[in-house]
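I am still getting used to backbone structure tokens and would like to learn alongside you. Label the sequence line and the structure token line clearly, so we can match residues to local backbone shapes. Go ahead whenever you are ready, and we will take it from there:
>
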Amino acid sequence: MLAPPARPSLAPLSRRTVLRGFGAAVALPWLQAMRAPGAGGPRARTARVAWFYVPNGVHMEDWTPGAGGFAYNLPHILEPLGPYRGKLNVLSGLTQDKARANGDGPGDHARAGAAFLTGVQPLKKDGAIGLGPSADQVLAAAIGERTRFRSLVLGCERGGNSGECDSGYSCAYSSNISWQSATTPAAKETNPRQVFDRLFRGGANAETIAARRERLVKRKSLLDYVNGEAKRLARTVGTADRARLDEYLSGVRELERRLDFGRDEVVDAVPDALRPVGAPSDYGEYVQVMGSLIALAFETDLTRVATFMLANEGSNRTFPQIGVNDGHHTLSHHGKEPAKLRAIRDINRYQMEQFAAVVQKFDAARDDGGNLLDASMLVYASAIGDGNRHNHDDLPCLQLGGKGLGIRGGRHLEFARNTPMNDLHLELMLRMGVEGVTLGDGRGPLAEL
């Protein structure tokens, strides 16, 4: 527990206050002490947005609610989101037309990943790249200067950005949903340790060699080096802030423990380049840790924009933890075989359970107006509908959170056929304060939210 306060500080804390110590720089969550004395009345919420992408489509029969509007029951795949039903919108009818062939022949998986956040038909020419900027990177360019990091771009699978994959398309299309420009994907980070380093050590090179060696030899937590500053800060804030700070630092320490820093590392003999990769061996743990890092980055206002590929498009990952030993992509071509359909259904449900655990992190965290989930717009979707059909209309798409940003939850919204998914992206961008931009084949913000 942190020390009790001695005297409240009269001057407000800066929102950019960090705890420093021997190479560490730990950002803080929002505290009441960060509000100027006498400030009152309603405040505009700080908006955040994160897109979570799942490959290979879903089993739509167990995804789509049987009724529209508010009067619907969550189908089997969506049941893990039951605790957040009032903040959830199921969106049916959205389409990514530029993921369709449109004369380019096979290659639906590559086109799905490429078009998801761009709405642009990807170039198909001997592995060459030609696309357009994605919604998250348009946002990053517009508002990224307000935070330490313009955006976070995460994934659970690496992928090549050169060579040909999926019927002649560049491999970059299947591996990336975030694009800085027509030819350059945003760098995707798949190592949660390196993401943690960026958030709390200022980057891979910020922590001094001496600090790293001492920390690893003594098996110390990063927070051990900022503990003194944390105690000093606790003496200057009120009871609620002290409890909030204690809770937050405990959460950071637990996340660090889950990443298991320092395991089996020989600091003098092994160069930094040969550190263990750091990705959890259990896929569910992997997804939850990466999602927790996004929540933490939003909570501390290190960034307000994120994307997360739960797997690359066309991924053939197996799921032995739920008894599915055949590859995901292979099973998605189910031909309506009952056993394969059950396996796809189980995979979709398992992925949703991991996402629900991530949502819980947002729901438990706080920001300057209350609940972090209410100030965050989370999208969970794919640019393929049914993996067997490879269709790109009536896509599986969920939107969670945003109550504090004016989004009404608890609905199954059924849009007209071929409504561009980019209209959803434009609506989210508008609620982030970015308007008057074009995005692929988007027609305009999706006002129904």
Remarks:
- The radius of gyration is 22 Å.
- Residues 44-199+281-431 form a domain with the Alkaline Phosphatase, subunit A fold (CATH 3.40.720).
- Residues 338-364 form the longest helix (27 residues).
